[in-house]
């Protein structure tokens, strides 16, 4: 027995041809995971097993809730600074940090070993053939991880069996020769005993191999059942998506029919509107919102959930309504917004002039059905500034960025009503609704507006219809920056200086407007300041393009210090929240909440007056949430329906259809006169592309000429004059101290005189 043990120990380590898998890759421990800029690194419990790295908020969650799983087969592992390393898998990047350098090194070693094992297993599994339906990589890894481990062990045992058989046969031959040489009976008996034991050892090994093979067959049969179940679930999901799409189309048709004839649908004489309860409860369970700005991930859900819960009161406390709330809008369609609302009444003056107003166009030529692969153009532009990527007009819409800025005024009546409000808090509600309404036209508008040429302008005079007139100018080309100024005869002035930071990230395009929007009401002097959220266009590579708005808007009344924080929730496939949801709280200068705002950025916004607040429970990690008891919500704003045939007219709204309509007397730099944009609107896209290239070459030559003049001035010791806009100039805002490009005046006077001598020739 001792000689046999020595022989077994001397056997070489079993290896598979082309496949060497060390011990099982399992590792557990605490790591810090980067979430977002507000929360930074958060402590998570990580578990590495079977080529998958999973993480949980606590160890107790391992039994029921996994916050995320990272497959390592195609992951990239990069070691960063002290105790820091980065995992990149499936287009997602995870920044992780250990508590010490030693712990970091252990994790990196374990991850690299697990990645090597997972990669070999994937390659090994790709050689399998059969009629099984292919499954996604993550599902395949999850369902076959145990099977691959069993197969690996079985092949190791097979190799050992071959070696045992080989050396066992040699041993038997040696013992047979020894038996022939030795004569004593006692020695022969011992040799026979050893021979029998060697034979028994080989038989036992074969039995073990057979048992493992039987177990593997059973496991593989279960694997086929799992794959069939997954295939069935995918088919059911696809069928459900098609059903939802059909329901959405039917809902859109019904809504359009209702808006065309609302009175036939809204007559409910036997119904008390105040008896209906409105459920506006923010979920507080785990997993209801996301704490990380990561695409379509519902994990770590609790950490960024709203810090308040709203509960609507029923009709038994209607007598408690304050006088200030009586001026808030009642629910209903837009034609009912002004019902008994003194500070929201529409301006009915000048009714006789209504018949004299200009009739503006309500359609443009249909968009041609030209197909072009966006990915073929943009695959070499990942990470670049979007404004520097040369693109054909096929991916544009026939409007410039200046016209898109002006399109924010589509719901200017919200500011007209806000100007008549006596309460600054009610005024804040309407200003917040106006800031949200500017995104309502973008829900189907995935095309890119034209980048304005340097010095390009756009005016919009709507004093006749809406009491305002607007002027904007492109004041910088790289980075692209535009200045905008609006004055209304109905009591308000708006101005903004916006720089666009756009990046192409491979799967999506992010557009981040930098800069603030200023609004001042003439009678009260209230001055509001806010910024815009990030717009993201998804599915650049494959799939249907869709746009999302995400981030926060902080609106500040610099006069009264009232504030409103609006949160635009990013879309998540797994979330049960209403898509495109917007929520917010209006607080006075002392931090007391007065109104809850809720709605969606593509449909409507409502406000509910707070009558009572209290500290509640249900927050994550011991944090309590504030429970607000509110009155019935009032409709602040509702989106206008799109014109007929909008899907063939770039999904333009009624205002957008008129923005590029020719006007007499505009400046020669006006966007309406831009030739490539006008050719595109007419459907002549090939001609538009040629004209667009000519304009860009002309602008490039002008930039080189200015650079040459600047270099010459430097050589001569003269002061270099930078480009100066025609109608705007850099100034410091008196209220905020912000340096921004503001209207210097003179445009409308020049238009009246038709004196455009100061305008450059850009077209």
UniProtKB/TrEMBL annotation:
Major place of residence: membrane
GO molecular function: cholesterol binding
Superkingdom per UniProt: Eukaryota
Pfam families, per database record: Oxysterol_BP (PF01237), PH (PF00169)
Entry's Gene Ontology BP terms: lipid transport
Subcellular location: Membrane
Record flagged with keyword Membrane: yes
Gene3D superfamilies, sorted: 2.40.160.120, Pleckstrin-homology domain (PH domain)/Phosphotyrosine-binding domain (PTB)
Sorted UniProt keywords: Coiled coil, Lipid transport, Lipid-binding, Membrane, Phosphoprotein, Transport
InterPro entries for the chain: OSBP_sf, Oxysterol-bd, Oxysterol-bd_CS, PH-like_dom_sf, PH_domain
GO cellular component, one term: plasma membrane
Domain PH: 24-116
Stretches of the chain forming a coiled coil according to its record: 230-257
Recorded topology in the membrane: Peripheral membrane protein
Family: Belongs to the OSBP family.
PANTHER family: OXYSTEROL-BINDING PROTEIN, OXYSTEROL-BINDING PROTEIN-RELATED
Name of the featured protein: Oxysterol-binding protein
Organism of origin: Poecilia formosa
UniProt lineage: Eukaryota, Metazoa, Chordata, Craniata, Vertebrata
């Amino acid at each position: 027995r001792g000689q046999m043990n020595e022989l077994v120990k001397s056997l070489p380590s079993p290896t598979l041809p082309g496949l060497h898998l060390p011990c099982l890759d399992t590792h557990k421990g605490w790591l810090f995971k980067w979430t977002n800029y507000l929360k930074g690194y958060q402590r998570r419990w990580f578990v590495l097993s079977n080529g998958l790295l999973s993480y949980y908020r606590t160890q107790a969650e391992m039994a029921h809730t996994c916050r995320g799983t990272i497959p390592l087969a195609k992951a990239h592992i990069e070691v960063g600074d002290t105790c820091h390393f980065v995992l990149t898998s499936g287009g997602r990047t995870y920044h992780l940090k250990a508590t010490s350098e030693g712990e970091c090194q252990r994790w990196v070693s374990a991850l690299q070993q697990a990645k090597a094992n997972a990669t070999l297993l994937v390659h090994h599994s790709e050689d399998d053939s059969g009629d099984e339906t292919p499954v996604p990589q993550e599902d395949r890894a999850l369902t076959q991880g145990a099977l691959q481990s069993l197969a690996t062990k079985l092949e190791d045992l097979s190799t050992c069996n071959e070696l045992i058989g080989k050396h066992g046969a040699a041993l038997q031959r040696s013992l047979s020769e020894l038996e022939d040489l030795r004569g004593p009976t006692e020695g022969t008996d011992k040799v026979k005993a050893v021979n029998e034991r060697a034979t028994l050892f080989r038989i036992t090994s074969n039995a073990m191999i057979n048992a493992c093979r039987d177990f593997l067959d059973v496991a593989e049969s279960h694997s086929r059942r799992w794959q069939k179940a997954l295939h069935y679930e995918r088919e059911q999901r696809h069928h459900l998506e098609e059903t939802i799409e059909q329901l959405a189309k039917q809902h859109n048709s019904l809504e359009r029919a209702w808006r065309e004839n609302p009175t036939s649908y809204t007559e409910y004489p036997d119904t008390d509107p105040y008896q209906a309860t409105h459920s506006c409860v923010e979920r507080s369970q785990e997993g209801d919102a996301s704490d990380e700005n990561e695409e379509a991930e519902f994990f770590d859900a609790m950490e960024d959930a709203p810090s308040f819960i709203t509960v609507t009161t029923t009709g038994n406390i209607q007598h408690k309504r304050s006088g200030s709330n009586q001026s808030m809008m009642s629910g209903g369609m837009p034609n009912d917004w002004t019902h008994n609302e003194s500070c929201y009444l529409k301006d009915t003056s000048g009714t006789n002039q209504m018949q004299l107003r200009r009739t503006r166009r309500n359609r443009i030529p249909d968009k041609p059905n030209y197909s072009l692969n966006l990915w073929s153009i943009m695959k070499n532009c990942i990470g670049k500034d979007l404004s520097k990527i040369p693109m054909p007009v096929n991916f544009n819409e026939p409007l410039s960025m200046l016209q898109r800025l002006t399109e924010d005024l589509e719901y200017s009546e919200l500011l007209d009503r806000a100007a008549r409000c006596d309460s600054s808090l009610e005024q804040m509600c309407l200003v917040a609704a106006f800031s949200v309404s500017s995104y309502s036209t973008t829900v189907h508008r995935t095309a890119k507006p034209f980048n304005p040429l340097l010095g390009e302008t756009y005016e919009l005079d709507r004093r006749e219809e809406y009491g305002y007139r607007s002027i904007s100018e492109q004041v910088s080309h790289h980075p692209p920056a535009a200045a905008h100024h609006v004055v209304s005869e109905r009591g308000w002035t708006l101005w903004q200086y916006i720089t666009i930071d756009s990046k192409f990230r491979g799967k999506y395009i992010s557009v981040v407007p930098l800069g603030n929007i200023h609004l001042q009401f003439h009678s009260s002097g209230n001055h509001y300041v806010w910024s815009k959220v990030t717009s993201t266009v998804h599915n650049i590579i494959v799939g249907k393009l869709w746009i999302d708005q995400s981030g926060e808007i902080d609106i500040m009344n610099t006069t009264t210090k009232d504030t409103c924080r609006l949160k635009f929730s990013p879309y998540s496939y797994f979330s049960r929240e209403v898509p495109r949801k917007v929520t917010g709280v209006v607080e006075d200068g002392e931090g007391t909440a007065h109104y809850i705002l809720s709605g969606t950025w593509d449909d409507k916004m409502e406000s509910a007056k707070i009558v009572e607040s209290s500290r509640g429970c249900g927050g994550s990690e011991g944090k309590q949430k504030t429970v607000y008891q509110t009155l019935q919500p009032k409709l602040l704003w509702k989106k206008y329906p799109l014109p007929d045939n909008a899907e063939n007219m770039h999904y333009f709204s009624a205002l957008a259809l008129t923005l590029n309509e020719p006007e007499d007397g505009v400046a020669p730099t006006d966007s309406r006169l831009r030739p490539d944009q006008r050719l595109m609107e007419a459907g002549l896209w090939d001609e538009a592309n040629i004209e667009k290239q000519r304009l860009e070459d002309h602008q490039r030559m002008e930039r080189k000429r200015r650079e040459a003049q600047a270099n010459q001035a430097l050589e001569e010791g003269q002061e270099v004059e930078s480009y100066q806009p025609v109608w705007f100039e850099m100034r410091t805002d008196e209220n905020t101290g912000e340096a921004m490009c503001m209207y210097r005046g003179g445009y409308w006077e020049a238009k009246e005189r038709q004196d455009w001598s100061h305008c450059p020739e850009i077209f």
